[in-house]
Amino acid sequence: MTLGTGARARFDAIRDILSRTPRKFDPPRDENGKRLKISEFFGMNTFTMAQMKERLPKDTFQKFHTTVEQGGKLEKDVANTVADAIKDWALSRGVTHFTHWFQPQTGSTAEKHDAFFSFDDNGEAIEKFSGSQLIQSEPDASSFPSGGMRTTFEARGYTAWDPSSPVFIMESASSKTLCIPSVFISYHGDALDEKTSLLRSMEVLSEKASEMLQLLGVNNVERVIPTLGIEQEYFLIDRAFYSLRPDLVMTGRTLAGGQPPKGQQLEDHYFGSIPSRVQAVMSEVEYELYKLGIPVKTRHNEVAPSQFETAPIFEEANLATDHNQLTMEILRKVSLRHNFSVLLHEKPFAGVNGSGKHNNWSLSIVSSSPELNGANLLEPGKTPHQNLRFLTVLAAVLKGVHKHAGLLRAGIASSGNDHRLGANEAPPAIISVFMGDMLSRILNSIEKDVGSDQNVEAAVLKLGVSKLPEVARDNTDRNRTSPFAFTGNKFEFRAVGSSASTAFPITLLNAAVADGFAELTGHLKEKLKGNKKVDVAILEVIRDAVKETHAIRFEGNNYSEEWVAEAERRGLHNLRKTPEALAQLVDPKSKAMLTGLGIFSEAELTSRFHVRVERYVKNLMIEVETLRSMIDTVVLPCSYAYQGALATTVVSAKAAGVPAPQSETLAKLTTTIASLQAKRAELEKAFHKAESLSSEEDKAKAFSRDVSTLMAEVRTHCDELEAMVADDYWPLPKYREMLFLS
Ligand code: ADP
Ligand code: MG
Predict the structure, then answer these.
(1) What architecture does CATH give domain 42-193?
(2) How far is the CA of 293 from the centre of ligand 1 (A)?
(3) Which residue has the higher pLDDT, 371 or 266?
(4) Considering only CA atoms, which of 652, 602, 573 is closest in space to residue 407?
(5) Most ligand 1 atoms within 8 A of CB, residue of 360, 489, 506 to mutate
(6) What atom of ligand 1 comes closest to residue 313's alpha carbon?
(7) pLDDT tens-digit series, residues 179-225
(8) Does the C-beta of 360 come closer than 6 Å to ligand 1?
(9) Shortest CA distance to 639 belongs to which of 685, 679, 671, 681?
(10) Least enclosed by CB within 10 Å: which of 43, 291, 727, 733?
(11) Where are the domains of the chain?
């Protein structure tokens, strides 16, 4: 009998992996060779406001600072002076190129490098960087997804510096590039990217929240900013295994793969000791992030084997969004140096947990008054008044999430997240809000009755609102199953997928809450017309809002079947798959709110819908084509080879006059091969049918129903074969290897 050789590459990979050692990197040191503290090199690759102040003439800095704070256009000579300072700094650091760094609607970032190098009027080689190069650039917009806006408007677009996010130096093995965080807009001012609308949503939210605060007698509020702390989950898989899996390389997830006897059921990975090669990746990633001024704080093992998490200290939402994009990029780059591939997909492996990106979100006050500045609006206060403010903000969030739950679901919709949401490990596709025990009790009693003619302070005390500070401590009973949970002084939007840009979901969340504030403000103004005292009126407004949004609050187990039924009774959306979720983007209610607040124009919104539907269809097409080629060129050939070998031994046994018990295995194997072929043919048919539909929306629906179902069925047969075919015939790295060997 000829031994199978199909598994040679896989065995070689295992041998290579077993001989790997953790890669060391050189931590930054001072002249005496002493290791620097993080605080001594944090942000060394960014050009911050503080450095601007140091390097710019005083009046230029003042003008620049005012423009950043208040928005508006930079004067030409200010821009030139700033550009000069940035150029000097960058050249002193060995930078040769610059690029506008922006976030097109691909979910990742884009850059086109330009050298500082140029010729002066005398033909002498020089380094040049002008104010206009700093402020604006014109990449060829036509190759980025615009969701039809290209036909409505025109292909040309330009990037414009967003000075609220500092410029930074991106280092690679052989060069350094100055990156200028930018927005990407068409010549008519339409947002072609993810950042523009995020910035708009922040502005609108600030305006609506400030208006409410002013009515409540909170003066001196300059701005209200959403703060964001993003927990990033990921898998690290050895690169040798990764390279042997066409599905991981092409789609970021395994399209087949049998379950190992041990998955995560022993719960021995979560918070366990970090494997040393992984620890080396983490340390180097953190080092790179610190240099970029990204305040990473925590690292640990996650629930699934080979799954990990990192989280920074929270920042202003737009900065946090940029920093999360950089974090994903640095994770990709650094893990390769260590012979790992990072998997940011929401569900790389069936049967173990997928990965999320928990978005911790709150609102913070910017004020000239020191007591107010930095105050967290979701932090329960010490006085009844502060608690009224807290309850008002809470009511605005409840309003927003209740009214726009469908939209929030749309914001997190992707082919990857479809595999994670509701997979009994991640929040379900039903959006609800978790409040915690104490706060629920308070809200429930507010809902029941507030004697409106009573002295407000007494009413607030009677409700136990004076106990609110304890809420912060009452978050030990964290409900991990909730998609949107209050966690003491912030909300945690857990349903966001691990590979997603947070820009879009957070834009929609900001918008929804801004709308919540606007509604409450409207109600409050109505009530104040009747000469009511503000405190009395606001309590009534809060009560109405809490009543009205009752259905969105859920404290129980979000994974349970009962919740699905209960949510349906409550009339909540259960948008299981991306196509139905995305439809919410162009729902009249969403459109009215988003265009009304000026966060998206109708054309921009429609374009986002189209871009996302198209991306969904493309992702599924790539998955089907990858699965098909894996079956045809890997799974079936190795199964045939093993089938042939078995058949030969059956013939030999019979010729030798001995029994051939392996003929049973042969028969079973043959049946399974036939089943796989039959299912593969069905998949092919469904695929062609879906592909041939004329509208992208119909395609998306067909892929999410028939094609997805058949892919899962095909997979079952592949996995049966994996369990049957002799190990040395099987070329694809197995789950037990990818997840447990490093
Ligand atoms: P967990 O137990 O979920 O890991 P942590 O307390 O570690 O919770 O916080 C998770 C994230 O929440 C961190 O990134 C943290 O900086 C962030 N966070 C804390 N406070 C706020 C806030 N006020 N606004 C936004 N994010 C916050
Ligand atoms: Mg968390």
Answers:
(1) Roll (3.10)
(2) 18
(3) 371
(4) 573
(5) 360
(6) 16
(7) 999 999 888 888 999 999 999 999 999 999 999 999 999 999 999 99
(8) yes
(9) 671
(10) 727
(11) 42-193, 194-221+376-579
